[in-house]
Each structure stands twice: as C-alpha cells, then as structure tokens.
Write a structure and sequence with these properties.
The protein is an alpha+beta fold. It has two domains: 110 residues, PvuII Endonuclease, Chain A (3-Layer(aba) Sandwich); 91 residues, no CATH class. The strands form three sheets. It has a five-stranded antiparallel beta sheet. Strands 1-9-10-13 form a four-stranded mixed beta sheet. The protein has a four-stranded antiparallel beta sheet with strand order 3-8-7-6. A hairpin with a 5-residue loop joins strand 9 and strand 10. The protein is elongated, with a radius of gyration of 20 Å.
Length: 249
C-alpha cells in the first residue's frame, strides 16, 4: 500500500462521515477542530516543521483561506541594535489601535502590507531580485494626517525596510513541509461532516515565491500588543488552493 493510500485509508476509517468532537477541548481555542483532525489522523502535535503524515502536509477544511505557515520575519526594525525602538513602538508607528479591544495596537488588517501596492499607512510588500521579501514603509505615501507626530524624524523616509523574510529561511520552511511528497486537505460537506479529500503536488520555493509575486499567496499579519508572538501567517484563498489540487477522493 502506497503512502497516499495509507492516508486515504486512515481518513475513511477515522474521519469520513464524522463531525469534529471538540467537547473535551478549550472552546475558546480557534484550532480545536484542527487538533481533533490531527488526533484522528494519527498526527502527533508538535512544533516540527516537517510534513505531517507520510511525507505529506495535512490541511484542514476552512471557510475562506488556508495557511501555508506561520513564518516570522528574520528581521524586524524594532530588533535592530542600531535603533532604540520597542515592539510597542513598532505597533504605534506602523499599526493601528483596535477600538473593540480597548485601543490595543496591532499590525494587522489595513496597516499590514500587501504585494506591490502601497496601503494607506505607506506600507508595501516587495520581493527583491534575490527572492527576499521586504515589508517597506514610505513616509511620503503615508496617508495618515498625523503621521509627522507618529513617525520619529529618523524614520520619516521612503523605502525603509521594517521587516524582512530571507529567501533561505523561507525556502527551508516551505520546502520541508510542502516539497517532499505534496499536501492533502480534508474536506467537509455543507452539514459539517468530513466527506472527501484532495491532494496536491509538491511545492518548491521557486513556485511559491511566484505565487507571492502574483498576490495569490499573501501575508496575513496578526501581530498585536500584549502578545509576543509575531503571528506572521502566509495564506492563500481556498479558490487558489483548488487550482493546486491534482486529485480528489
């Protein structure tokens, strides 16, 4: 029996036709459904960047978008020893307060940079000639009326890299998960019961970075004040994942 057949057999035996039972888990945890699926498929919970099962990366059914990985930048301006800025300073300069969270600052939503388009906060995501990804700030294109009082004089410049993902770091993370045998996703029906599976081919970094350049893969930042995790998700809409699938069971 091949590895793909083993995965399909596990799904048919332990998952197909079932609804995730998360009654014994923390109901406030967003990933509880994924943990249930991992347990049923025999995937041990760990922090490893290796493929989940038999060389394949497993993805769960989601409503709109699916994650490649939570991959922090290799450089943040607030970690630069030449600067005396804190992480909270970074969120004040380049993020925005969330009124629903008592004014808690976050680098998410509108302030978070997207590929090849400057947002209202003067930020943009660019891939350089060496396939490194830069989050850049441009003071001249920052549309905030009070930007001069928010941004320190030393940072009131253009083409300022505020975060950087290095090619070799991203390549290692992406290919260790997705470029061994490929990936599969467990799909639910409209009733919320697991019904089918889709598989996709291995994904190389060279392919993936093209998806970033085209905007199909995007940076979905969730960094916020009071939590040390960067929450640097790299995701694609499910409609794009559908284009990557090569077989359906």
């Amino acid at each position: 029996m091949g590895d793909k057949d083993k995965i399909i057999a596990l799904f048919n035996k332990n998952v197909k036709g079932k609804r995730p039972d998360t009654s014994s888990m923390n109901e406030n945890h967003d990933g509880k459904g994924g943990h249930w699926l991992e347990r049923m498929m025999g995937v041990k919970a760990n922090a490893s960047n290796s493929p989940d099962l038999y060389g394949f990366e497993m993805k769960n059914d989601t409503t709109i978008k699916t994650t490649f990985g939570d991959w922090s930048a290799d450089y943040y301006i607030f970690k630069d020893p030449d600067n005396k800025f804190t992480r909270d300073d970074f969120l004040y300069f380049f993020g925005q307060p969330n009124k629903k969270k008592g004014g808690r600052l976050s680098w998410s939503g509108t302030p978070a940079p997207v590929i090849n388009k400057v947002n209202p906060f003067g930020q943009i995501l660019l891939v350089d000639q060496n396939s490194n990804i830069h989050a850049q700030y441009n003071f001249s294109q920052d549309q905030r009326k009070d930007k001069s009082s928010i941004i320190p004089f030393s940072l009131q410049i253009d083409n300022l890299t505020i975060a950087l993902w290095e090619k070799e770091s991203l390549k290692k993370k992406l290919e260790k998960k997705f470029n061994e045998k490929g990936w599969f996703k467990c799909i639910k029906n409209k009733k919320g019961l697991y019904e089918s599976m889709v598989f996709g081919d291995p994904i190389s970094f060279e392919e993936w970075i093209q998806f970033v350049k085209s905007g199909d893969v995007f940076f979905d930042s969730g960094m916020y004040q009071g939590n040390k995790r960067p929450y640097s998700q790299w995701r694609a809409n499910n409609s794009f994942w559908d284009k990557l699938k090569t077989s359906h069971y």
